[in-house]
């Protein structure tokens, strides 16, 4: 895919790489201000990569993935602009919309996903969902139903991402891990993971990045595919009479 990227797309990939590196270092160093500001810039940079790397007409998949990235950006940004009491719910709300947008983006490829091709692989996804909800249930209280709904949409995103190929499937699974880490920290009092913020953001940008890479690759492949040759049709004409026949 790298050779097919435009100069602008390559520039945005470099910007994104620098932002990710700065953000992860800030997470490890506990530099909250740098971590927060750099987090606000991650999804716009990834969105710029997708826009500059894809070709018009971008179609259903690219359009809805850009919507998902935009909603993810709002999920990163808006919680820091509201009170602490509402921040978590605002974040969950925007990311629920982002996951829904991903589901809409991936849905047309459902026949290529594990849903149709290897239904047995749905069992691990279901097991993860059940385990996550069960672990969060005691601490979720009145938020148990929203947690279960979010978990269901998140799992659906991961399942449907398999329809775009291995890279997207890995991205969807890693994105699921990222959100699962957030849920465990929020609702399981005994949960302790050293470097929680680092691991959440590492899996977050990795998951989103892999999904974006798969979407760009598909768009480029589709736009470079040769157009099918037109099918020639012949209009039936009345037979031309031979001169000898005409004389007879």
Automatic annotation (TrEMBL):
Sequence intervals crossing the membrane? 12-31, 61-82, 88-110, 122-141, 197-216
Keyword line: Membrane, Transmembrane, Transmembrane helix
Task: Kindly give the membrane topology term recorded for this protein.
Answer: Multi-pass membrane protein
Instruction: Establish whether keyword Cell cycle is in the entry.
Output: no
Q: Which InterPro entries match?
A: TMEM86B-like (IPR012506)
Its GO CC terms are: membrane
Q: Where in the cell is it found?
A: Membrane
User: Example GO molecular function term?
Assistant: hydrolase activity
- PANTHER family per record: GH04784P (PTHR31885:SF6)
Instruction: Give the family this protein belongs to, as stated in its UniProt record.
Output: Belongs to the TMEM86 family.
- Spell out the protein name for this chain: Lysoplasmalogenase
Q: Which organism is it from?
A: Cellulomonas humilata
